[in-house]
């Protein structure tokens, strides 16, 4: 018998596995990320909903008592003061599931990550062009 969970292929599949109240939170979070990063591609990475733009942008996941948000260590560092009331680590933050998520803050973090990833991609491209000349 195989007890291994079936991997998710889409964010819709991931969200549909949660109770209705959690689905609502996840759908709102998804929309906030989409609005802040309209060019980002939705995918599943590490079995979590992921938005990618010139590499991974942010991940999120639901747990029994919190929503995990993973904006890369740089996203946590850049907003450490605003995130100070939440449990967080080097590259993650936990938003209690029984309290409203700080969607405005999440949007700002995503916008920061978009700019960061675009800058990194531009620098990488400039480096490749320089090597050719």
Automatic annotation (TrEMBL):
<protein>
    <submittedName>
        <fullName>DUF1801 domain-containing protein</fullName>
    </submittedName>
</protein>
<dbReference type="InterPro" id="IPR014922">
    <property type="entry name" value="YdhG-like"/>
</dbReference>
<feature type="domain" description="YdhG-like">
    <location>
        <begin position="23"/>
        <end position="114"/>
    </location>
</feature>
<dbReference type="Pfam" id="PF08818">
    <property type="entry name" value="DUF1801"/>
</dbReference>
